[in-house]
Amino acid sequence: MHVLLVEDDEPVAESLRRGLKRYGFEVDWVTTGAAALAHPGPYDVVLLDLGLPDTDGLDVCKALRGRGDVPIIVISARSDETDRVVGLELGADDYVSKPFGVREVIARIRAVMRRVRPRTPADAGPDRYGTRLTVDRKAARVHLDGAEVALAPKEYDLLAFLTEEPGALMSREQIMEAVWDANWFGPTKTLDVHVAALRRKLAGAITIEAVRGVGFRLEVAGDTP
């Protein structure tokens, strides 16, 4: 996924660039509103600071939205409710207040992309992962070697989320927000239980690696069973 980062604070930008690249994102970095508007693209999402040296980021947001539907996430030290409301009304898809963590930004990017790029009917057939596993998101059914696998509802939701980006490291917080609830305050032990169930039921087709202190990464097995 290609990100256009519009940020004039070099330490903030460098930290964000490094973090995004660790998660597999491509990042183009510009420091002014003029450079953002002149950037030829293509890019999949814009991370836009409001405090730019040459113009107000809200004006850049409005101009970018007037050009098309590329998702825009405002990242700003302005935490005032008025700025949030104005940014969203001018076309921003989300608003992240500084200071923020890279994983929070990545979670926001993925959430926005899921909202703005819903699957079309033409894309709604089963998705194949390797030679053994298919996930039919339209019917919410999973098949292994042609036979349907009985998954509990949250097991299916977890698998569907992790297979959106095989190989990507997902934090426990991202997974809990996407699969359970954004306001989940209970223990995350339930996540470990569901991961264990998927490992058992889909053994040989996928692996789910636990990254201590971070989260989980799903890998699809090779073509040879």
TrEMBL record:
Modified residue 4-aspartylphosphate is at which positions?
49
Question: What CDD domains does the entry give?
Answer: REC_OmpR_PmrA-like, trans_reg_C
Signal sequence range? none
A Pfam family found in this protein is Trans_reg_C
Q: Which GO terms describe its biological process?
A: regulation of DNA-templated transcription
Task: Report the residue ranges that make up the OmpR/PhoB-type domain in this protein.
Answer: 124-220
Q: Which residues form the Response regulatory domain?
A: 2-113
Top-level lineage group: Bacteria
UniProt GO MF annotations:
phosphorelay response regulator activity; transcription cis-regulatory region binding
CC per GO annotation: cytosol; protein-DNA complex
DNA-binding region of this protein: 124-220
> Which keywords, in A-to-Z order, does the entry hold?
DNA-binding, Phosphoprotein, Two-component regulatory system
The record's section on InterPro entries has: CheY-like_superfamily, OmpR/PhoB-type_DNA-bd, Sig_transdc_resp-reg_C-effctor, Sig_transdc_resp-reg_receiver, WalR-like, WH-like_DNA-bd_sf
The record's section on PANTHER family has: PHOSPHATE REGULON TRANSCRIPTIONAL REGULATORY PROTEIN PHOB, REGULATOR OF RPOS
Q: What is this protein called?
A: Two-component system response regulator
